[in-house]
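Data availability excerpt. The first of two example chains:
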Amino acid sequence: MKAKKAIALVISVLSALALFAPATQAAGPFFPKATEFFPVANAPREFRPLLTELFLVGRGITNGNVFNDSVLVLHKGELIYERHAGGWDKDKPHQMYSVTKSVLSALVGIAIADGKLKGVDQKVVSILKNITVAPGQESKRDITIEHLLTQTSGLPGDSDDEANAVAWWDAKDSGKAAFELPQMASPGERFAYSSGPGMQCLAALITKAVGENLFSYAKRKLFKPLGMDSVLWDAAADGVNYGGFGFSMSPRDMLRLGYLYLNEGNWNGKQIIPTKYIEASKPKPLLDETYGYAFWNSFDNGRYPDAYHASGSFGNFIFIMPGEDTIIVRTGSAGPATRTVSRGMGSSKIVEAIFMGLVYPLVPLKGVPLEYFIANL
């Protein structure tokens, strides 16, 4: 805990130095067409690229990665900074890990506006049918969509050994199998972050509610209107896209998604996500980390109280800073040493012990099948 507070202090200092003075009122938001991108502009004098990069390195360290693969900064609708390294570029899809949750959250808002979902207070069992509720776990019937979005459903979280039970990955109905895992708490009783059961339930129920493949629905309702053409999305054995991981997109498409949230769900006059839902999605503006609808507040919010972000393992971030009219995107991935160790899995008990003891615990990926994790390093 002391180490985390020390890191938080350093990051807060860097944050205070790195970014921007309060933004002046922009003439009006610019929305690029599908075949366009944001115009390139000179950075304001307050912007310090090196300190911004260091700020993002610090955030990456807490998420299992040191090096910045890509860093992009959009300020007042203009691209003022872009840098790529390690073979990555502006258009290459990058594994997003838990940023997938934030994409899923956006689709909940769209499905509600579409009339496919009644609202965040709708109960999961009203959509996922033929659910078996074990004796003593009757409160599972009270789990709502909002409980899943806020990771307060009572289903296994990263702190629970049950989170490693990933039988849903190969199940004929991944949402049902995930929902039927042992309940650890009553709905709303505790926050327990996980990339597995709760998020897969959410992906499955949206899929059932909209009546089509989730990725197809997302392309039609979200990605195409924004001009996001780099997107990829892996799926479980039953064809339901993963809810807590498995989504990939380019750094520039990350900017587009962040810009949609910056503009309260509106894209060039069309309300893609309801403003009311966007507002509900935001974490409370506190100095300690808090969680909204799959978006994080952060401990460096002293200077930027309205900032929030989507976060994925290895330091994949979309920082949304409404007060500064700014989006900051950072991608990160496992380093060469981690990949080398992962390739040795199964060949040596020593290598396996190193991987499971040192590498795997670095990132919050319980609930993600180990095979998938290793294959995507």
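And the second chain:
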Amino acid sequence: MGQPKSMTTKQAKDYLNSHGVSDYNLVDVRQAWEYEEFHLPGAKLIPLPELADRLNELAADKPTLVYCAVGGRSASAASIISGQGMEEVYNVEGGAMAWQDEYAVGPKELGLMYFSGGETPLEIVTVAYTMERNLGAFFTQMASSVERAQIVDTFRQLARFEREHQATLFKIANRLDPSIMDEGELEERAAAVDVLEGGITAEVLMEQNQDYLRTAKGVVETAMMIEAQALDLYMRYADKADNAEAVKLLHQLAEEEKIHLKVLGRLMDRKIVSDNSGD
């Protein structure tokens, strides 16, 4: 029987970035209310008191990363999991409180009202396309509602990113159904979805991020939060899907969100959006 190992939060982020979303188990063993406040994108919620009865929900042939708030409960959880014969188990030291990067918010049911579990891959793509379209429209609207040129330019750049994301989803839809010859046809199939990418509404986004949306840097940080939320949503979708092709597609969409996060990270690193204050 193997013994659990430890990872710092930095090592955990490096691991998650360098592996596909289907290559590991990422488990949050906190309580549901803690998960709802914030959690690592794609984490599966299994509170520690429920863990022993839900071990069958973890893929036994994959490495398992476990975290809690600061590392205490996850250390116990890692011991339980490795005690059942799983060889590669890691406790993330410092836990969620030490996580300094993108995170997701909301209950595990957030956004799932648009996904029953039995959708075809094409139906999943139309939901994703609609969410991307809604977010692009939000960024465009925001660009027309502010006056500071730097913030206007940032919103417009983010709207262009969303158009590129939509084009990627059209290509996927065309592979699934070659009769869909242009985005207009996909638009006609667009699902009746009124939320943005990641499953949150524009109203909630504005309410929770008003202060961030007052600077160009804050706008990009908010966009990064949305992409993290989308990655999380697709992983929760995948956990609910009832056929292998749908799961494979949802994992592909989650990987696309990881790429989008890296693009936004480079945008921040290059200081394209540095504010006049020098921040």
